[in-house]
Design goal:
Layout (H helix, E strand, L loop, with lengths): L11 H13 L4 E3 L4 H4 L1 H9 L10 E6 L1 E2 L11 E2 L3 H15 L6 E4 L8 H13 L6 E4 L3 H5 L6 E7 L6 H4 L2 H7 L3 E5 L11 H13 L4 H10 L6 E2 L6 H9 L7 H12 L5
Parallel strand pairs: 1-2, 2-5, 5-6, 6-7, 7-8, 8-9
Antiparallel strand pairs: 3-4
């Protein structure tokens, strides 16, 4: 969520307008984390959302917790992780207050910590689910073994760094594990480093197929992800109305199988084995 001070720092009215544009075009999920904007973006979004007239039950609020981030609101010495019951519960209370809601549709553990007490975390999550403060549970940036540690909980989502230029989870068994365990992948940074990396071959191939499928490069990048059978949900970080609309239109792109592999080959620089 780069609508706040870590991004373009939209006014409350501009943020409200963007929420309505997104919602009116079929986007009803909004991704947050307690630390975004130095612990300020959830509150800004909550204030903006309250002015839209959109019913709470018609949207899906996601937030994350677990990272302790040095900021004006939290003047701690070093960035670290805290998954104690006390911190998780306080983070949820803060998020609910800032977002002006009684519940989160999904809570994600933001990043795995080497000091995670699985039993304490599981008990805390179960209590939050029972109390109705969260409707579902997920993780972010977790490996297969880290997800396995929480097998006594129903993990609904894993938000991961996944794009045509960042394919680790497509090659290390993560997506296959998620498919077999009914865990939905959320892909943050779904455009990857396409616009910053120098890969002439990939740019040439995407230019060719953009013409074939009558779309832009960024739409094709999203369409490429969407073809994967794991049912990937791209997390779109745009701050512009036209990009929101274009992203939604990428759902209509149906890339042919041979074209999908040609794009993959151009990205990695070699044929599949």
């Amino acid at each position: 969520m780069n609508w706040g001070v870590w991004g373009v720092n939209h006014s409350s009215k501009k943020m409200s307008d963007l929420i309505k544009v997104a919602f009116n075009h079929g986007v009803n999920s909004f991704d947050h984390a307690d630390i975004y904007g130095g612990y300020t973006t959830e509150e800004s979004f909550g204030n903006a959302f309250s002015k839209t007239g959109i019913k709470r039950e018609d949207v899906f609020f996601i937030s994350k917790c677990g990272i302790m981030y040095p900021s004006e609101k939290h003047p701690i010495k070093v960035k670290h992780y805290d998954y104690s019951a006390k911190h998780i519960n306080q983070s949820i209370l803060n998020s609910l207050n800032y977002l002006k809601t009684d519940y989160l549709d999904c809570l994600l553990l933001h990043r795995p910590s080497p000091l995670m007490d699985v039993s304490e975390i599981s008990d805390t999550i179960k209590s939050l689910l029972k109390d109705g403060k969260i409707k579902s549970f997920g993780v972010s940036n977790f490996t297969v073994m880290q997800m396995e540690m929480f097998k006594d909980l129903k993990i609904s989502y894993n938000q991961i760094n996944l794009s045509l230029t960042h394919l680790d989870s497509m090659n290390d068994g993560t997506l296959e594990y998620m498919q077999t365990n009914n865990i939905i992948p959320m892909a943050y940074s779904p455009l990857g480093k396409y616009y910053t990396n120098d890969n002439p071959k990939l740019k040439k191939v995407l230019e060719l197929f953009s013409k074939k499928y009558n779309c832009s490069d960024d739409q094709l990048l999203l369409g490429w992800l969407l073809k994967h059978p794991s049912n990937i949900y791209p997390v779109i970080g745009t701050t512009k109305v036209d990009r929101i609309k274009k992203s939604i239109e990428s759902l209509k792109i149906n890339i042919e199988t041979s074209d999908w592999f040609e794009i993959l080959e151009a990205s990695v620089g070699k044929r599949v084995p």
